[in-house]
């Protein structure tokens, strides 16, 4: 089996799992104890992967840490890596996303933050520059807030064009630039905002997560606040694909690292309970770009289950066959080494799981 690193960010620290040639996992941590870790990046574009962690200390505030030895040691910049310019009147509350760009930009890393803003690093995540054009977009002042606050929580880069970047904002919707951030336009046609007077507005949707298809850069999958969607034109238009799911609400969506048309979601009931539908622990997979869905339950708990998977807590690795992972608010982490066909519990009794990331490192 491939040598895989699994990063699990929780409300009280970061846990790092390592699976070597066998099936057993060994975990270290907590790194950054008593700090909420909402974002982790595993940058495999380097000879040795660089780990980035957005940790949030209740005493010292949020910061971005990096490690070039797989988490054995961590470095924090002497000055804040992510900082709002003084003239914005804003201060950093949380780093929600740390996303390395494509191989054509080997040192570029994006950070999405709360309040909703985007930052760009050109030195592998050591320092970040404020992307002022998105902050000054005339629609930004009308963005709302999701339950977790207003945040840029998703960054998707286009492997064909280094200047093409898509972001998702809760609750502002999807925005895209094709000119390297000089200008941004909303890309929400077809996305529903059932909580607004106009259910199909130009912007204001509470998008929960977006994942790109690995074989078609124009194809994207989106989990909305009510609705699972697909775009076949790089986000210009969206079509609902949630038929066949027990609920179209949820937070997370992930895609296969190589197979086109394969995506995963973890549905959640939309209502006062916000538990898995029928209290069953199920991941759903489509292998035909959302035309149909199959429940993946082998090895998952069969009894009533109440663990919810948050927006960044369902991910795949780049192994062959691909591994699939999710962590929940019960502090459990489940892993599949066969693309979701079967699962096993690899960690339990952790703090509330906020995000997971996985990558082959050997």
Please supply descriptive tags for the structure shown above:
362 residues; mainly beta; Methylamine Dehydrogenase, Chain H; four-stranded antiparallel beta sheet; 41% strand; globular
General description of the model:
It is a single chain. The protein has 362 residues and is mostly beta strands. The chain has a single domain, classed as Methylamine Dehydrogenase, Chain H (7 Propeller). It is 1% helix and 41% strand. It contains one helix and 27 strands. It has a four-stranded antiparallel beta sheet, with no helix packed on it. Strands 7-8-9-10 form a four-stranded antiparallel beta sheet. A four-stranded antiparallel beta sheet has the order 11-12-13-14, with no helix packed on it. A hairpin with a 3-residue loop joins strand 5 and strand 6. The longest helix is centred in the middle third of the chain and has 4 residues.
CATH class: Mainly Beta
Secondary-structure-based class equals mainly beta
The CATH architecture term is: 7 Propeller
What is the assigned CATH homologous superfamily?
YVTN repeat-like/Quinoprotein amine dehydrogenase
Task: Give a nutshell description of this structure.
With 362 residues, the chain is mainly beta. The chain has a single domain, classed as YVTN repeat-like/Quinoprotein amine dehydrogenase (Methylamine Dehydrogenase, Chain H, 7 Propeller), CATH 2.130.10.
List the helices and strands and how they pair.
Blueprint: E1 4-10, E2 13-19, E3 25-31, E4 35-43, E5 50-57, E6 61-67, E7 94-100, E8 109-114, E9 117-121, E10 129-130, H1 132-135, E11 151-158, E12 161-170, E13 173-177, E14 185-186, E15 207-212, E16 220-224, E17 228-231, E18 239-240, E19 250-255, E20 263-267, E21 283-286, E22 294-296, E23 314-316, E24 324-327, E25 333-336, E26 344-347, E27 353-360
Antiparallel strand pairs: 1-2, 1-27, 2-3, 4-5, 5-6, 7-8, 8-9, 9-10, 11-12, 12-13, 13-14, 15-16, 16-17, 17-18, 19-20, 20-21, 21-22, 23-24, 24-25, 25-26
């Amino acid at each position: 089996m491939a040598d895989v690193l699994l990063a699990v960010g929780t409300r009280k620290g970061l846990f790092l799992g390592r699976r070597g040639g066998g099936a057993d996992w060994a975990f270290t941590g907590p790194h950054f104890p008593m700090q909420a870790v909402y974002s982790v990046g595993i940058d495999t574009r380097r000879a040795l992967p660089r780990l980035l962690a957005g940790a949030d200390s209740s005493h010292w505030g949020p910061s971005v840490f990096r490690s070039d030895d797989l988490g054995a040691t961590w470095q924090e910049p002497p000055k804040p890596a992510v900082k709002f310019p003084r003239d914005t009147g804003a201060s950093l509350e949380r780093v929600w996303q740390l996303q390395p760009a494509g191989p054509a930009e080997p040192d570029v890393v994006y950070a999405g933050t709360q309040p909703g803003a985007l930052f760009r690093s050109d030195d592998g995540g050591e320092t970040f520059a404020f992307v002022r054009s998105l902050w000054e977009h005339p629609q930004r002042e009308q963005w709302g807030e999701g339950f977790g606050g207003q945040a840029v929580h998703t960054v998707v880069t286009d492997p064909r064009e280094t200047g093409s970047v898509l972001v998702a904002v809760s609750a502002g919707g999807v925005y895209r630039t094709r000119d390297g951030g000089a200008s941004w336009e909303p890309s929400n046609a077809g996305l529903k905002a059932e909580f607004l007077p106009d259910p199909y507005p130009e912007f204001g949707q509470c998008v929960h997560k977006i994942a790109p298809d690995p074989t078609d850069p124009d194809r994207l999958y989106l989990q909305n606040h009510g609705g699972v969607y697909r775009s076949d034109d790089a986000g210009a238009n969206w079509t609902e694909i949630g038929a066949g799911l027990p609920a179209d609400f949820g937070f997370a969506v992930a895609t296969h690292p190589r197979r086109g048309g394969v995506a995963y979601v973890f549905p959640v009931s939309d209502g006062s309970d916000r538990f898995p539908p029928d209290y069953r622990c199920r991941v759903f997979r489509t292998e035909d770009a959302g035309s149909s869905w199959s429940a993946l339950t082998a090895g998952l708990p069969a009894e009533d289950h109440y663990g919810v998977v948050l927006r960044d807590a369902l991910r795949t690795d780049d192994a062959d066959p691909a591994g699939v992972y999710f962590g929940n608010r019960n502090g459990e982490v489940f892993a599949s080494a066969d693309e979701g066909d079967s699962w096993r519990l690899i960690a339990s009794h952790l703090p509330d799981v906020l995000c997971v990331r996985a990558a082959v490192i050997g």
